[in-house]
Predict the 3D structure of the following.
Amino acid sequence: MNLVWFRNDLRLADHPALTHATKNNENVLALYIFNPKQHQVHGESPQKYEFIKSHVKDLRKRLKKINIELLVKSVPTFNDVPAVLATVVEQFDINAVYFNRSYWLNEIQRDKAVIKQLQNSEIEVRQYHANYLLPPGTVTKDNGEMYHVFTPYKNKYIERVKADYELPLSIPGELTDNKDLSAQVESESILLEAINLDDHLSQLWPIGEAAANERLKAFVADNDYDDERDYPAISGTSGLSPYFALGVLSAKQGLAHALKQHNEKAFSSTWVSELVWRDFYNDLLTTYPQLAKHQTFKSDAVDEWRDDDELFEQWQQGKTGFPIVDAGMRQLKQEGWMHNRVRMIVASFLTKLCLIDWRKGEAHFMAHLLDGDLASNNGGWQWSSATGCDAAPYFRIFNPTTQSKKFDPDGTYIKTYVKELVDVDVKKIHDPDKSTRDECGYPQPAIDYKQARTNALDWFKARK
């Protein structure tokens, strides 16, 4: 019997491990292992954990349709996983274990331990690349080194994707003769019964592979991403990041739909460029695993920051007195997601105006995001704080009021999340005067922008 070990790939389509395990109509069992304490160690949000549970439940139903049972286990951390695999392999007389590769530090260590355990028991192990357009390390400079600037990386990356392009794998057909294991795995299903995902979040982010694919198709068929993606008050982005983060969708599926709709023009689109950015950050984290240990990419980057717990808490709570910043921070808490333009604004505010350590912001995001992705979150925060690869230079400091006026001109986004300002005139909403703030109970600015910008430039110059 073959065992398919699902991890960060909660889908049936474009799943190489599943496809190869089922191709000869052999007996197949699927496995998913929850690691609740590992999620806590990684600082991931409780709602993301519930989001994962919801999708594992959906995966279980979809697997049943092709006559495969999903065995669900739960152990505290990755360290406990090899023993689980050993037990399952023995209990179900498994000959080969199939899974898709993970590329991050803790996951690599887990998989090495699992492989050693299985090989010692003479169990065959088969691994596949699955979640990114290309395996990390595929695209390098001529000397074999990783690119440190995105544009030349992207140009070579697109060339390689074109040369090696393959359509995503289809969902395997039903295994008509698969051994009936329902009675043996049913006792574990209780792990999927107590799901505490907020109804509000499940409405914003519908559960399941089918729902994710419908959202992908709808976005690719009708969007003006290049022109609308920076405006948080409108639905100008894909809204797919939570599904990519869990592997409910693969990057290859995203590209395939874009190519089907727009042919070769898709390769020059901004949205496909964002898929490449995702791969770029994963490539960086794989090449430089110290990034997963809270180290800066740039060896000469500023690594001394202000300690200001009160200001950091104002930022966390969305009470800085800068409307666009506060709207973003409140959206994060309410929806487990934040518009990408606003992510850049709030990150620049924290690191370059408040001079607070980017790692605190990174951790706060991870603790609330449904789409929390270690590589992308780390890459984005290091980009914003001028500490990372191909980062915004230290002197590029977003003016939150200017950004607000440009990208939320009528204040619709602000009014959606900062209810105190819902009746404030559009002429005042981006930077209300003192009397307006007092009347509606909105806080005064936590910092003086002009002075903070001057202080920041001096701070970075002195520490470079």
The chain has a mean pLDDT of 95.
